[in-house]
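Troubleshooting: if your tokenizer reports a length mismatch, compare your output against this known-good record of 73 residues.
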Amino acid sequence: NMVIGIVVNVLEEEQAKADTDNPERSSLRNLHDEIQDVRVILERLEARLDAPSVQLRDVPAGSKPKSPPVAPG
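Known-good structure output:
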């Protein structure tokens, strides 16, 4: 376990040095992390949209949805 810990520390130090030497590499890693976050959000949204309690209406683009009818009284 101690050897594994040392190897991991050395690899992390080398990775940090590589990111410092090449800022684009760090930006790509950040972009990858952000894409993963967006993927999780999309999966949650899809799950909510697939739920039976959600009903969507067809509304033409640019128009306002109509209000539901109000009972007289």
